[in-house]
Amino acid sequence: RLPPLIREFRAAAQNVELLLVELETPEQVGALKEGKIDVGFGHIRFEDEAVRRIVLREERLVAAIPAIHPMAAGEAAVSLTDLARQPLILYPRQPSPSFADQVIRLFHDRGLEPRVSHEVREAQTALGLVAAEEGVTIVPEFMRKSHIDGVTYRDLIEPAASPLIMSHRAGDHSPELQLMAAVIVRMYSKWGYHVPEGVTRLADPS
Question: Structure pTM?
């Protein structure tokens, strides 16, 4: 639910110039440290003493399957064992660490070796390949809203999640960062989500 947060922040901070830039995790960390961006959102955990990160939510992962595939029939959840037998489309594999590393780890933690058929840069490309019946992929649950003809989404039997992480410069106490945190607190409370303590402190540092 990142887009609604961005819309709420834009409405609450009409005098703030808001630019959205897509960066890989290492690029995002570098841009934060250099002051090129003020807040970053992503799915990859990292360690850097100059950057603070807060896990906002653990987003469930789901399987994206060609609509004509037998596993797409009905509404039943699918297992990683079944998915390991299918051609697997990964994104993005580089630079590492990446979301693809998280997906591979899901299989390896269960003693499974996935059949990687394609490695692409973006989720939309991966879903396009699924629609073309080139294989299956694993995506965060919010991607269900990507209505692509020929793609069906199914829950996983095994528990699997990816973190949604907000990152900012250590020691940043700007009013813009405080406002972003306040927007997250307000919207998460509205949606009935747990509000991380770190976000609450950012929103009200007093």
Answer: 0.79
Record the tokens describing residue 198, joined without a space.
Answer: 């770190």
* Alpha carbons 173 and 177: distance in angstroms, whole number: 7
Domains in the chain: ranges and CATH: 2-57+162-203 (3.40.190.10), 60-161 (3.40.190.10)
| Cβ(71)–Cβ(154) below 8 Å | yes
Q: List the chain residues with pLDDT less than 50.
A: none
What's residue 72's pLDDT? 92
Q: Would you state the pLDDT for residue 14?
A: 84
Contact present, 186 and 58 (Cβ < 8 Å):
no
| pLDDT tens digits, one per residue of 114-135 | 999 999 988 899 999 999 999 9
Tokens matching residue 65: 């399957």
Q: Which residues of 161-174 are buried (b: 16+ CB within 10 A; e: fewer)?
A: ebbbbbbbbeebee
